[in-house]
TrEMBL record:
Residues 108-125 have a biased composition (Basic residues). The lineage of its organism: Bacteria, Candidatus Eiseniibacteriota. It comes from the Bacteria. This is Uncharacterized protein. Residues 104-125 are annotated as: Disordered. InterPro entries: CopG_antitoxin (IPR022148).
Length: 125
């Protein structure tokens, strides 16, 4: 019969950040008996969101509302999508600044070229 491994006690954390840092450097198998874990369902769990007040030029808001109407979605939802897409793009841009072969393969070569290089490669009219 297999002898059970003695589990370590999970420390008490003062913040989510502290807990996140802890789990990034520790193996959960030292603290949790995963073979006894069960699937949990949280049907009433809502994603945490915060309300903000954002001042936009009236013309920009009108354009956003027009785009949202064409897509048949609320304009606030469309704004969240636009913001999320931009955050992903910015993160990718930051990663691109650091050499990463796998990431570079996903970007079209013309996008990797600087403006001067693209200008030299484009046919003159």
């Amino acid at each position: 019969m297999l002898k059970r491994k003695k589990l370590k006690r999970i420390p008490t954390f003062t913040s989510e950040r502290e807990e996140r840092e802890f789990w990034q450097t520790h193996d959960t198998t030292d603290y949790v008996e995963w073979s006894r874990a069960r699937v949990a369902v949280f049907p009433d769990l809502k994603a945490s969101t915060e309300s903000i007040s954002l001042r936009l030029p009236a013309s920009l808001l009108a354009e956003i509302k027009t785009l949202a109407n064409k897509r048949d979605v609320p304009y606030q939802s469309l704004l969240k999508v636009f913001l999320a897409e931009r955050v992903v793009a910015e993160r990718a841009r930051e990663k691109k600044a650091m050499p990463n072969i796998a990431l570079q393969r996903t970007v079209r070569p013309s996008r990797r070229l600087g403006k001067a290089q693209r200008a030299r490669q484009s046919p003159r009219r």
